Amino acid sequence: MTTPCVRAPVVEGEATRAALAERDLLDGDREIDVEDGEIFVPVVDGEAARAAGYEVVERETDRRKGHTTPADLLGFEPSYERLGEVVILDEEDPERAREIADAIVESDLPCGTVLDRASKVAGEYRVREWDVLSGESTETVHREYGHEFALDVAEVYFSPRLATERHRVVEQVEAGERVVDMFAGVGPFAVPMAARGAEVVACDVNPAAIEYLRENAERNGVADRVTALEGDVRETTAEYDGWADRIVMNLPHSADEFLDTAVRLAGDDCVIHLYDMAHEDDPFGPSERAVRAAATPAGYEVEVLTRREVRSYAPHELNVCLDVRIRRI
Ligand code: SAM
Question: What residues are in contact with ligand 1 under a 6 Å CB criterion?
Fold first, then answer.
């Protein structure tokens, strides 16, 4: 089987393996290989490893001997996500969920808690309910593209599925930029943007999210460049009118209601990353029209930079992102 591997000189082998493990990128299910003075370390996310500065190649790898995976015990490949040592299932059938949870606990997968989704993401804080199948704590520390995020999945929103999308946006940020993250959660946009040298104002109405956001800014050494504002972004940001070079609006379903605030916060030349849920027949039209309706009367011209389908959300419904530049005429 071909999997992504980090290639490094053998003399740097152990340091490379340890650094990849530290970033949660090591693929513990595959064997490390050595050939012609080079080591090949299997990784779970080749793109993330490349973004962290490693050389990544596709290579035949063997299943790691003596390492029991949940699939070895179940006889089928279960689907799960990992947030640090919290393992997340999305199973309809409670018996199947129980069987998978037991196999995960018995396997060699690092795991403190197994949770099954018990509701959709809901409410103002965009949090879901969970069935706890094993362990107790819903708090964890998750690593994404080299940054650490402490969070409690029972108290705050966080989706590891959006890692690649967040990275796409973060990579556009340049040192010295002024960013407003209007719906910041625990900081997965705000923290890496500050790490690239931006000055970030990060807002959230959920007090628990703001507490974790402040902790995560500290953890990642960027507290001096992140200002966390707790409360409704429409009310907490009055002193930042006309301030932002870039605005992140990751509150799909209702971001439209906040476009007037975004335009108020925008400087003379500002990029807005607007997330939305839209029908596949016209994925970008509604967002584009909403931005124009908010920005044009305020004296801005609107240029769409990117139209991106982030993921499928429901049948015929897409999670999309529109990157737009608004410039004062
Ligand atoms: N950007 C984060 C991420 O990628 O993980 C969080 C996104 S989550 C979909 C939306 C966040 O917006 C939630 O943390 C919620 O508490 C926050 N929120 C909802 N309404 C808000 C408001 N009026 N003002 C500020 N934050 C709000």
Answer: 124-126, 157-158, 162, 183-185, 188-189, 203-206, 209, 232-233, 250-251
**% residues pLDDT > 70 (the chain):** 100
Number of H helices, E strands in the chain: 10, 17
CA count, 13 A, side-chain hemisphere, 190:
34
What residues contact residue 135 under an 8 Å CB cut-off, 6+ apart? 86, 111, 112, 113, 114
The residue whose CB lies within 8 Å of the most ligand 1 atoms, and thus the one to mutate among 186, 204, 234, is 204
Angle 83-14-196 (CA atoms, 0-180°, nearest 5)? 55
User: What is the arithmetic mean of pLDDT over 2-29?
Assistant: 89
- Interval 49-71: pLDDT, tens: 888 889 999 999 988 887 888 99
Whole-number Å distance between alpha carbons of 151 and 323: 28
Name the residue of 205, 226, 237, 275 whose CB sits within 8 Å of the most ligand 1 atoms, as the mutation to test its pocket: 205
